[in-house]
Amino acid sequence: MNTRKLEGKWALVTGSSRGIGQQIAMGLAQYGCNVILHGRTMAHTEKTRQMLAGFDVRIHAVAGDLGTEDGIQSVITEVQHFPGYADILYNNAAIQSEWKPIFEFSMEDWLKSFQVNLFAMICFCNAFVPGMAERGYGRVINLTSGIADQPNLSPYSVTKAAVDKYSRDLAFAVKENNVLVNYLDPGWLRTDLGGPNAWEAVETVLPGALVPALLDDNGPTGRLYAAQDYKVLGQGIT
Ligand SMILES: NC(=O)c1ccc[n+]([C@@H]2O[C@H](COP(=O)([O-])OP(=O)(O)OC[C@H]3O[C@@H](n4cnc5c(N)ncnc54)[C@H](OP(=O)(O)O)[C@@H]3O)[C@@H](O)[C@H]2O)c1
């Protein structure tokens, strides 16, 4: 594997203030990739920024609540201001819906999940993927989930099914432009979202989460990648 292929590129990792996004940001930095951090507030990104301080890469941070159109737009505007584009886009930020019987979710519950987990992702793809296509290089990785048979989390799991379908449609749209669009199942990991009983430590998302970013030009697109398929026992980036 060419370990230098991400050097000098810019990756936007939404939701990189903690959890899986933070690991992905560290993994990218280890490959020499410049990283645009994101959280709901700038202060939330500070810890990840400190964790990346030892890497020889450029770090930029943007903020915005993806539950609001203004928040999404401010992320887009800030990235357009600097660095102006993204070569790699990890649509990682998401929220999990409340645990309750499937019939009790209100339209507001459904809309909230779709807003953060799907519509924000679509807005970021609309903002940054056409530029990737024009430049003839792009890697888009949308975080999905292997969640199954959990009707009490239906708004969350339905958004993830939509993420898979959207990713395949987008992949087809830009497949001639060396923009590879894939979706990543990180596994069930101990994060704020995954909870303390999850099967795996958050560090096990690496190195697998980087595989779709490291694909060769005109490589696989529209595919599901499972980070746990690449798990190296005892290995994580600390
Ligand atoms: N953990 C698991 O077991 C698991 C399993 C399958 C899939 N996934 C997927 O992996 C991704 C990351 O999950 P995680 O476990 O790392 O979650 P997490 O620990 O809860 O972190 C969520 C991240 O998303 C950001 N975020 C949440 N709501 C936001 C909003 N309204 N606007 C902007 N940013 C927001 C958070 O930013 P702030 O810090 O600013 O709040 C944080 O950086 C998600 O797409 C999730 O669905 C996780």
Unreliable spans? none
- Beta content: 5-15%
The end-to-end distance, rounded to whole angstroms, is 22 Å
CATH topology: Rossmann fold
Secondary structure: helix percent: 25-40%
CATH superfamily: NAD(P)-binding Rossmann-like Domain
Strand order of the largest sheet: 3-2-1-4-5-6-7
Strand runs, count: 7
What count of structural domains?
1
Order of helices and strands: EHEHEHEHEHEE
Shape: globular
Task: Describe this structure as you would to a colleague.
The structure is a single chain. The protein is an alpha/beta fold. The protein has a single domain, classed as Rossmann fold (3-Layer(aba) Sandwich), CATH 3.40.50. 35% of the residues lie in helices and 15% in strands. Strands 3-2-1-4-5-6-7 form a seven-stranded parallel β-sheet, sandwiched between helices. α3 (69-81) packs parallel to α4 and α4 (107-135) packs parallel to α5. It starts with 9 loop residues before the first strand and ends in a 12-residue tail after the last strand. The chain binds NADP nicotinamide-adenine-dinucleotide phosphate. NADP nicotinamide-adenine-dinucleotide phosphate is lined by residues 15, 17-21, 39-41, 44, 65-67, 92-95, 116, 143, 145, 186, 188-189, 191-194, 198.
